[in-house]
Design brief:
It contains 17 helices and 11 strands. By secondary structure, it is of the alpha/beta class. The protein has 3 domains: 2-77, no CATH class; 83-142, no CATH class; 153-346, Alpha-Beta Complex (Spore Coat Polysaccharide Biosynthesis Protein SpsA, Chain A). The strands form 3 sheets. A 7-stranded mixed sheet has the order 3-2-1-4-9-6-10. Strands 5-11 form a two-stranded antiparallel sheet. A two-stranded antiparallel ribbon has the order 7-8. Helix 9 runs antiparallel to helix 13 and helix 13 (316-324) packs across helix 14 (328-339). It starts with a helix and ends with a helix. The protein binds uridine-5'-diphosphate and manganese (II) ion. Uridine-5'-diphosphate (UDP) binds at residues 159-161, 164, 210-212, 216-217, 220, 240-242, 295.
Length: 418
Amino acid sequence: MRMSVKKAVQLSVIITALYITTVHFFSKQTILSSDARPGLDRGERSWDKTKETPGRSTGRKDRVIQSIMQLERNKSIGYGNQERVGLNIERNFISDSAFIDNKKDRIDFQRNKELSLQQPKDEVKTEVRNTVLPVNLTLFESNTNFRNTQLSDIFIGMKTTERYHRERLDILLQTWVKQAKEETFIFTDEEDDEYELKAYGHLIVSNCSARHSRQALCCKMAAMYDMYLESNKRWFCHVDDDNYLNVVQLVKLLNKYKHTDDIYLGRTSLNHPIEATDRNTPDMKKVKFWFATGGAGFCLSKALALKMKTYAGGGTFKSVCNRIRLPDDVTVGFISEVLLDTQLTQVMLFNSHLQSLWNIPRDQLTKQVTLSYGDRVKHKNIIKILDGHFSNEEDPTRLLSLHCMIFPDEDICKRKRL
Ligand code: UDP
Ligand code: MN
């Protein structure tokens, strides 16, 4: 009797083991033979009702499929040393539809897709030829079909701090920010009802500290980058709060480039590449790269900005700042040039107060994309406008006079010089 109980137990253990192995084998087969595809990425593709694969909640099977996809993608993208593998890699996948950035493009895309599914009738063939995407081209490849870039395609992020609200913001709010109030978001560190109103409701109070430290500045840049991603715009541009931005020249400049290409535009402040230590490498590798100085303003195309997600999205930007122990603008250069192999395109139309602003000829001032000012008493560095709309006393930075030189019909310029 005792023997038979022991045998029964042994038998049941063997049967259970056999059952588990069989189930595991078949479920793996089913997963691998499924139609594997990535999940939807919030804010980029979820709008796309034409997709054959609607979003669905991720079950265990889907998670396995996704992790297999991620591994594959990880290999093909070739980011060897990213800081966080996992969630962010998922975001590195850029679909064609990620480049459709407003309602009009979306409708066009949907219409084109529908049209390309139908066989066009002979009589309408010529009419639709221009709008239907060639069969073997994806939207991404045929991006020459995109309309021109407009101001509304640009996200402009500005860094400021509470003590500069009164001192620096007024002049910008009355001039160029007024022309780009929908596009400009001002990142600060303290609530300020007065300036929230003056900034057309676009004063963003970050959780970052009010210090001129690497961490505080990187924190603001991280917040700005995340908000840019939400905006789904074609370009991400950054300026400081002592920068005049000529919005017309900016649009003109960006129209020379495709937002679907990897583009990093700005101006260097050094005459040699910066050297940094990459603390994420076992041998603390030294890396050399160029970066666009933040004080002159810089822009990133959507294609490049989306690729940066792994290193900059969801607050990861701050850890990359720590990785090289350098400020926010240098970190953008590191991500672009070193991690993503996209070199800075130097544009001399961006000007920080590290350039000799007083030396720019008057007829060139109106052509610059950005201009700044240095107001240190001993080292004044201010653009030269002798017969401006406003006197030096009224307009010590000369940015008001500059604005009126470019846009004489603006309300603020209508009054006579005192
Ligand atoms: N800034 C900041 N927090 C601070 C000091 C400065 O966010 O505590 C911002 C400031 O508003 C500006 C940028 O950092 O947009 C550069 O600051 P600033 O012009 O004073 O210095 P610079 O680096 O140009 O000499
Ligand atoms: Mn400055």
